[in-house]
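Bug #77: duplicate submission created two jobs. Keeping one. Sequence:
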Amino acid sequence: MNTDKTYAEQLAAEYAPKDTSKVVALHKLDRRAKLPANIAANSIGIVACLVFGAGMCLAMGVIGDGSTLMLVLGVVVGIAGMAGMGVNYFVYKRLLEQGRQKYAADILRLASQIAE
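Kept job's structure:
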């Protein structure tokens, strides 16, 4: 077995111009349908976790003056962060469904062409 030849063919395939096949186009459409939902879910999740963490810091007296007012404010901010984390999944599912509906016709048409 000629490993040099195999390596050379593999390397040439990496640098050769890529053809846009139907499978690649289908994969791109699938990613395009899911991308807004993923970006929104990650953004909302990160912000909600940071808000929750800030609320915990306020409640425990890590930031602020440690008074009762800061404790109550920390609990309220923490609950707001928890609410954001709880809503995140439903926002993701709704945006994912919208993306799927938007690209469903193109994806189904392309998938049927590939299957034939």
